Amino acid sequence: MNPVELLGNIIEVSHSNLEITSRIKAVLSTMSQGMDFDEAIVFTSDQDKRLTCKFKNPKSTLYKILDRYRCYIGEGIIGSVAQKRIPQYYNNKNIPPRFGCLFYPELDSLVEKYKAFAFLPLSDDSYIYGVLVLCSSGRRFITDAEKILLSIISREIGGVLRINDLLLSSKKRIGELATLSELGKILSSNAEPQALLKDIGLIIAKSLNALFVTIKLDHVFLRAEPQRYTYGILDQPIENYVNELEQEALRQKKTVSLRNHGQAEDDISSKYSLYATPIMSKNRILGTITICGGRSQRDYAFEENSRYLINTFANYIANGLENTLLNTKLKDVIKDLNNAQKRIINQEKFKSLGEMTANIAHEIKNPLVVIGGFTKRLAKKMHMNQTESRYIDIITNEVLRLESILNDVLNYVKDTPVPDETCNMNDCIDEVLYLFSSDTTWDHMRILKMYDKNLPSVPCDIQQIKQVFINIIINAHEAMNGEGTITINTEKTIMDNKQFVVVSIADTGGGINPSVIDNIFNPFFTTKERGTGLGLAISNKIILNHDGKIEIENVVGKGATFFVYLPVKNHTNREELL
Amino acid sequence: MNGIKILVVDDEENIRFLFKEELEEEGYQVELASNGFEAIDKVKGTKFDVIVMDIKMPGMDGIQALNEIKNMIKEQPVILCSAYGEFKQDFSSWISDAYVVKSADTGELKQTIKNILNI
Lengths: 578, 119
Description:
Chain A is α+β, with helices and mostly antiparallel strands. Chain A has helices at residues 3-14, 20-35, 63-66, 76-84, 107-111, 144-187, 193-208, 219-222, 238-252, 258-261, 266-271, 307-351, 353-381, 386-410, 412-415, 425-436, 462-479, 535-545, 574-577; strands at residues 39-45, 50-56, 70-72, 88-91, 116-123, 128-136, 212-217, 227-232, 256-257, 272-281, 284-294, 422-423, 445-450, 458-459, 484-495, 498-506, 549-555, 559-567. In chain A, strand 17 and strand 18 form a beta hairpin. Chain B has helices at residues 13-25, 36-45, 62-72, 88-94, 107-117, and strands at residues 5-9, 29-33, 50-53, 78-82, 98-101. The mean pLDDT of chain B is 88.
């Protein structure tokens, strides 16, 4: 065939719309017929620098045997052409046995019939895509003109392979981008970490066509047992390799693969490709992600340069997990803050229960006295008929009724009967202390609790008793300027043949000035700048109303101890005790 | 009752006015002060037979004023007159001569004054 015509045919098929494999096969077929070659075979190189027999002309017989073998760049004639990128031409006299490669023992008998051989690199300026192997039985040599033609054809095939490569890698990139975008979507969804990890495994496995994806999270990170989330099937014997690889990845703090790891048995490493990467955020290790693919030709995603992709996944996951965790933490903190706020409000409420009611009643009472007082004066000064006097009487009596209601409010402690229900003072103290637990002015306070575990319960109005302990504890806190030790002791005791529970609250605030100690239970007596002087007065009232008493032991220069005595049975059933 | 001087100390103008009217009607000479400081000033210039003292007042409260006045004139009779009823007992036995719960019915106050004056 005319070389120009041949080249025209070849360019026509190589630029056709056919699928890549068909295009190359058509080029090889056209060329073998047009130039009288029995064999026209294309070896392609992969990322591991391995040359594999991939395309052939329809008549090829060598293909059967070559297809079973691989060689690396540099090995034999094919490997050296790929390495040096220089065409090699041989005849049946000078062709090295087995194409210079030890691994093809059956080859020699098959190539005996051929007389001329050509090995041409399929490359461009920067990259080798493969090697074209040509054998002819009909011709003895290849002319210089034919060599030029062959070099043009091999460049053409190289171009097709290059386009194929670009196509595959751009498909791969698009797939990776889609995966990353899906991951991004999931990671920004604020889902719980567990749900998140299941979805991540699924997406990565689907996009990479992986056999399984397994994410193992460190227990430190989850504050629980280490947890594993796997998409796909992870079982023996590969599970052992996964575990080892994960350890290795954590140790090296970088991506490791089964091959690099070097301990894998051959059958495992030839069947699977396994990559493990630590999931790290701000130098903190959160766990590992391990991806497993089968080692068939189609699983291109698991070739060496996928490391960067797996690293990217790991970074994405680390950031996503950190965000999710921060979110969860934030929710916890908000919950804690809300609780703390509620406690502080409660604390204030308890603290000022008595004082507030007293103050409000007081404020209302003054104008009421004025209204009632002048109404009476009006009645005295005016000469009124019966109807008018009746009106005045109604006003006067209603004012007196309101006054008596206010007196009841102001006397609320005295008039509240002690309920029948009983409470344990250990629990009561704990509940009171809880009110201060989130108060930062209590940060330097030490609370020592020495409870009698068998403390009997006492009949009491728990809210009132809490108020007493709150008053005493707040005074202790203030006496120590927020820094010191409060020791709370509970025990049983017998006084006058009656059983009492005694709660002692001791502070290290230097004690009470002896000149004021006699007055501290007196109403409106206070040593504080902003005190109302009602706290201990009301407390004393409450305890007296419970048939108990408060005593003080004062050591000047050291501290004060308040003893609160509460009877185990109130006086109505004292006989039962006796 | 002529010549018996009473000092009413209260921060509420209308209460002062009410007590003044009621007590003057009984024949007493009534002077007024609106807080502890004013009360002490008055006591320094005049001898009162009885002082009626509110507790909660801005500036100087009744308890402080009572203490200062007692320090100046130990035998000065002072009646505490407050809306708080709860601590009546404590006050009676503690520092004041008497404790009266403020009321539209001024009968108790008048009677307490009489008791202190022995009339």
